[in-house]
Write a structure and sequence with these properties.
single chain; 5-stranded antiparallel sheet; 3-stranded antiparallel sheet
Length: 246
C-alpha cells in the first residue's frame, strides 16, 4: 500500500538521521524510487514533527556535502561541538603545547567532531589557533610525552638531565612508571634504582633531555605504583620541587 510505503520510508529517513547518519537526496531517491519533490515533502514532514516535539533538534542541510542531518545526533565515537570547545579551551589555557602541536591536535579533533556542524567547528579551530600564544624556544611537548610513555610501557630505565639550577644541570636515573597531571603541569613519576621504595616526581617542563637504557627493569617495580600514591605525592609536593619523597 502507498500509505504504508510512505510511512516506512519516512521512518527510515528519520531513524538514519537520528543515529547521526547523513542522507543525500539523489542516492536516497534512487534507492526508494521516489522523485525529488517527494523527498522534499518527506523532509518537511520530519521537520514539522521535530518542531512539534520541542526537542531542540532540527534538520540541517550541508551545501558542501549536499546532505541532510538532524542536529544533536552524533555517530558513535563523535565529539559534540560543545565537547570539542571545552577540550580546545582547556588546551589553550594550559599553553603546554607548541603552537604547531596545538594546531595539529585541534585538526585531529576536528575530524571526529559532529559533521553536521562542520562550518562552526572549522571557525572554532581557526579562531583558537589564531589566539594561541606562540612562545619562541618552546620545546616540542608531544614528542617528549610520547617517548616517555614508550619507556613506561617497555619498562626502560632512563637518565634524566634536569634544567640548570643553582648547582648546574643534574642527572638522575629512574625507573619510569607513570605520567600524571597536577596543578596545570605534567609530571613523570618513577623509582630511583638506589632507593626502589622511593617514588619521585619530575615536572616535564624541568626535564632538559633524557637518555633511554634499552634494558628492562623488573616488572615488580611498575606494580608497586598506584594512581593513589602518585596523586598523594603530587598533592603533598605541589610544584615546589621537581623531585620529592613520597
Amino acid at each position: 500500500m502507498i500509505g504504508t510505503e510512505k510511512a516506512i520510508r519516512i521512518l527510515k529517513m528519520y531513524e538514519l538521521m537520528l543515529n547521526g547518519r547523513e542522507i543525500q537526496k539523489a542516492p536516497f531517491c534512487v534507492e526508494y524510487g521516489i522523485s525529488d519533490r517527494t523527498f522534499d515533502r518527506d523532509i518537511r514532514t520530519i521537520r514539522l514533527f521535530l518542531s512539534e516535539e520541542y526537542s531542540g533538534r532540527e534538520i540541517q542541510y550541508s551545501p558542501d556535502r549536499k546532505s541532510y542531518q538532524i542536529s544533536g545526533s552524533l555517530e558513535s565515537g563523535e565529539l559534540s561541538l560543545l565537547e570539542l570547545t571545552v577540550i580546545i579551551k582547556i588546551l589553550k589555557s594550559e599553553q603546554a603545547l607548541e603552537k604547531s602541536e596545538f594546531e595539529e591536535l585541534a585538526k585531529s579533533l576536528q575530524c571526529v567532531t559532529e559533521r553536521g556542524k562542520s562550518k562552526a567547528v572549522k571557525e572554532l579551530i581557526q579562531n583558537e589557533v589564531r589566539q594561541y600564544e606562540d612562545r619562541k624556544g618552546q620545546k616540542t611537548f608531544l614528542q617528549m610525552f610520547s617517548d616517555l610513555l614508550d619507556c613506561i610501557s617497555n619498562r626502560n630505565p632512563i637518565q634524566l638531565e634536569l634544567k640548570e639550577g643553582g648547582h648546574g644541570k643534574k642527572k638522575v636515573k629512574i625507573f619510569p612508571v607513570a605520567v600524571e597531571y597536577q596543578d596545570a603541569g605534567f609530571y613523570l613519576l618513577g623509582y630511583q634504582p638506589e632507593e626502589e621504595q622511593r617514588l619521585a616526581a619530575f615536572l616535564l617542563d624541568e626535564i632538559e633531555s633524557f637518555q633511554v637504557t634499552f634494558q628492562k627493569f623488573d616488572g615488580t617495580v611498575a606494580q608497586m605504583y598506584s594512581y593513589h600514591a602518585g596523586r598523594r605525592l603530587l598533592e603533598d609536593s605541589g610544584r615546589k620541587a621537581p623531585n620529592v619523597k613520597e
